[in-house]
Amino acid sequence: QVQLVESGGGLVQGGGSLRLSCAASGVIYNDYTVGWFRQAPGKPRDDFVAAIDWGGWSGTRTDYADSVKGRFTISRDYFGNTVMLQMNSLKPADTALYYCVGTYSPDRANWAVYEDWGQGTQVTVSS
């Protein structure tokens, strides 16, 4: 099993930026996908944010939810075994507990296929 540990959450004013990190450890094959889901207060944790291929040095595929396109960027640090989520132009609607997740399934936007979950990191955006 893969272990995922998030960091980088916090409180930020609307329009500000935060950078989340997800450190991965364990045996990970190249067809693994790492993603981010979020859970707003009182809602389930099935809100897809972004996903990225774990393997591949070029042409790495990334996917984003429509709600974050143009504001969030997911990337991979190959040497540090870390996936980052750069979040810019944050809105109060982005307030949630953000989970780093992993799967070998191609159905990236479906929370139910992700077998590996981190503990979550809180992001709070004030208005």
Description:
With 127 residues, the chain is mainly β. Helices cover 0% and strands 49% of the residues. The protein contains no helices and 11 strands. The chain has strands at 3-7, 10-13, 18-25, 33-39, 47-53, 62-64, 72-77, 82-87, 96-103, 116-117, 121-126. The strands form 2 sheets. Strands 2, 4, 5, 6, 9, 10 and 11 form a 7-stranded mixed β-sheet that branches. Strand 4 and strand 5 form a beta hairpin. It is globular and about 40 Å long. The N and C termini lie far apart (39 Å). The mean pLDDT is 94.
What gap, in angstroms, lies between the N and C termini? 39 Å
What percent of the residues sit in helical stretches (DSSP H or I)?
under 10%
Per DSSP, what share of the residues sits in E-state strands of 2 or more residues?
Answer: over 45%
Number of separate strands: 11
SSE string, helices as H and strands as E: EEEEEEEEEEE
Uncertain spans: none
Largest sheet: 7 strands, mixed
Quaternary assembly: single chain
Shape: globular
Task: Give the class from helix and strand content and strand pairing.
Answer: mainly beta
Work out the helix count: 0
CA-based gyration radius: 14 Å
Mean pLDDT: 94
